[in-house]
């Protein structure tokens, strides 16, 4: 049972409504996580602005693979379900989704980004010079390195939010990490 309940449509604060409505229109429904996050217009809109800005960095498949690696480390079953669903819609095969949850990707360039993202979250940002150099050598710019760090932070924010709140799941559940 959620620790904080999702809002009903008539309960959504006026300052959260435009953002929540945009997500609902794009997704075709209002996920429970978003209907709960909207309780705080300040936090919700800040997160949404950052998330939407980051949609312009890297490519969708790389972002989804990074989200899976980060969500796996953070143990967020809600986000693993959401991002597994999104990765599937982005035409990533199941094997690639499983690989991302283990901190890798089949494409060498994406693999460098996913491994770097996983190192960031596991080491709480205390990565080595060699870690940064490896992602650069894979073809990422310094701006991309910064964007990967920011993606890790944004995905961790939603991981922490969902781990604390425990919203009702509205995406198909995924297998526990130990069974993949």
UniProtKB/TrEMBL annotation:
What keywords appear on the UniProt entry?
Oxidoreductase, Peroxidase
Output the Gene Ontology terms for molecular function: peroxidase activity
Q: Does the keyword Oxidoreductase apply?
A: yes
The superkingdom of the source organism is Bacteria
Q: Where is the Carboxymuconolactone decarboxylase-like domain?
A: 43-109
Residue ranges annotated as transmembrane are none
Q: Which Pfam families match?
A: CMD
Question: What's the protein called, per UniProt?
Answer: Peroxidase-related enzyme
